[in-house]
Write a structure and sequence with these properties.
- Chain A: Its EC number is 6.2.1.5.
- Chain A: This is Succinate--CoA ligase [ADP-forming] subunit beta.
- Chain A: InterPro entries: ATP-grasp (IPR011761), ATP-grasp_succ-CoA_synth-type (IPR013650), ATP_grasp_subdomain_1 (IPR013815), SUCC_ACL_C (IPR005811), Succ_CoA_ligase-like_bsu (IPR005809), Succinyl-CoA_synth-like (IPR016102).
- Chain A: Pathway: Carbohydrate metabolism; tricarboxylic acid cycle; succinate from succinyl-CoA (ligase route): step 1/1.
- Chain A: Keywords: ATP-binding, Ligase, Magnesium, Metal-binding, Nucleotide-binding, Tricarboxylic acid cycle.
- The structure holds two protein chains of two kinds.
- Chain A is of the alpha+beta class.
- Chain A folds into three domains: 159 residues, ATP-grasp fold, B domain (D-amino Acid Aminotransferase, Chain A, domain 1); 73 residues, ATP-grasp fold, A domain (Dna Ligase, domain 1); 159 residues, Succinyl-CoA synthetase domains (Rossmann fold, 3-Layer(aba) Sandwich), CATH 3.40.50.261.
- In chain A, 36% of the residues lie in helices and 25% in strands.
- In chain B, helix 3 packs parallel to helix 4 and helix 6 runs parallel beside helix 7.
- The longest helix of chain B has 13 residues.
- Chain B is of the alpha/beta class.
- Chain B is globular and about 55 Å long.
- Chain B folds into two domains: 118 residues, NAD(P)-binding Rossmann-like Domain (Rossmann fold, 3-Layer(aba) Sandwich); 146 residues, 3-Layer(aba) Sandwich (Rossmann fold).
- In chain B, the strands form two sheets. A seven-stranded mixed beta sheet of chain B has the order 3-4-2-1-5-6-7, with helices on both faces.
- The chains are: A alpha+beta, B alpha/beta.
Chain lengths: 398, 303
Amino acid sequence: MDLYEYQARELLEEQGIDTPRALFVEDEGQVAQAAETIGMPVVVKAQVKIGHRGQAGGVRIAQDRNAAVTAAADILPMTIHGHRVNGVLVAEARNILHEYYVSISVDRASRDFDVLATASGGTEVEEIAREHPESVKRLHIGALEDFDLEAATRMARSIGFYHADVDQAAQILLRMWRCFKENDATLVEINPLAKVGDPDDEGSKSLCALDAKISLDDNAAYRHDGWKRFATARDADPYEVKARELGLHYVHLNGQVGVIGNGAGLVMSSLDAVSFAGQDQGTGIQPANFLDIGGGADAEAMCRSLEIVLSDPQVASVFINVYGGITSCEQVALGILEAMDELGIDKPIVVRFDGNAAPEGLRILEEAHRSNIHMARTMEQAAAQAARLAAQDKESSK
Amino acid sequence: MSAFIEDGAPVIVQGMTGHQGMTHTARMLRAGTNIVGGVNPRKAGTQVAFEVDGQTVDVPVFATCQDAVATTGAVASVVFVPPRFAKDAVVEAVDSGLGLVVVITEGIPVADSAYFVELAQRHHVRIVGPNCPGLMTLPDEGHSRGCNLGIIPDGIVSRGPLGLVSKSGTLTYQLMGELADIGFTACLGAGGDPIVGTTLQDALEVFEADPHTKAVMMIGEIGGSAEQDAARWAAEHMTKPVVAYIAGFTAPEGKQMGHAGAIVSGGKGTARDKKEALEAVGIRVGRTPSEAARFMRETLSTL
């Protein structure tokens, strides 16, 4: 789960990392008050879980109260790269002297934790890595290692922090690590980690986390009270919300063929097959969702799955792809029929079974004589048929 | 000898007395796996009776892995322990001198997996998984029993010249089914989590060293760079042909597709990148599982 900036800041502050004073505001009416409280000038920042929001106009500096209100009024209704803005952060504008970048993340390849840092921060690290690869330092923290102040100081030196910043940088690295470990994060990124203050007053200078990105490990939610405090960070897609309540692995996409299968890999493969079929048939038909029904594809699970999938009005046909491993396709077939009766389904459904009791399952469906159940022998044929049926529906409803 | 484990090797099951553990221990026994014990501190000293081919097999329950290993001489363990207890269970298995620990459990925090995977590496213990269907080896000639460690359905395939490694469970069964007439030496579910004990590359290394494996089917999916790493290693070291399939071309950025590790983030880990990396080193990638199976048949016909 990715957090919004205002939530990520909370976790950094809990570790004692300095951040600019700021208030999170969801309502335009509260912006003036927030700006007064923080003091001018302020930065008004879109709260949205996607990068490059600055270029998209999602970050504005306001010199006075009215400018802050205008900026918020512009930003609040925005959708940036397909992500709806969730609110704005009204933050104290700090005088930036220099920008660093630091992140800690799970390194899937080396199977430990990766510290990525550069003394030339500010933009997206991918860009820095492309333009100045030599300036990006990559260090590791082992999964069995204890990362202490000494190790953090060594790391701060090798990253290339200015001599005057090394001690403070080491403290920040250590606190970032604690933030990462204690919260079961998979990413803690500060960009920029800025040197702020009065250029002529050495004593006023300090390092401050101007922006932060944190992702949390969903598998560890049980250790953190289910991340209730960050509930708003969950996706607001209404279908996904409902599916989560029902305990289903569902991802809403934007196509016309609903897809239900067992096993994440097989479902992904089914989505690809539908998309390829749409391309091959020249209709541009796409999958409407990902839904992994899991191991026990019984009648109840099938019923709930079909209900969710068909509640999306864009769905014109459904492709059910089950490989019977431990689960028998006979049981799945009975589940489909039961769900169809209960929900009164009239949209076309294409079923493909393989594995455990596949012929028996298909026979059950055949003998039920439902005109809207279609059976296919292979995954490709089933996907092609589901895509064709969805295209016909689209055509006839024109 | 099969890849990964001796035929008929003695195996224990951690979490055997839970629902999943009971169901799959019964299945593994019926598939011929030599299960010699279970671990559960609260039920130590008892026995669990399983029906296998009309006969009753009593499997003793031990308090710890150490006890189980000392009494039975087990060399491998299968872990069905729920996520919140999985780290302690795997650490105990690694410390008890087992050589192979197959972790089926889905939903283990990645920090816990990172810990036990690193610990296992230091102790030279192989971990398979977590969040995987397990490992199945088919018996070599002269042996009646291979090993079915996990939840891979028995009876789909028999012994043959192929090795299979996969990030996905049902796609493993799908490809096993498609290539059932050719047969396998071993089928390994690497797992769908961001950190796993045996990567695609690790599996290629074992299959390359196994004299009975002639070609390898590799099934990948979006997320991470395990496919690219495997491609790079294969290009430099692999003498045996590899055919691949990758799932998730239609997966959108930033969305977890079922598996914890199946996510494209920051434009990285896309199916397209993986396909290109594999094809760049001469590994054919099927557009569908069936096409991958056909490529494998074509490849075998040229050997």
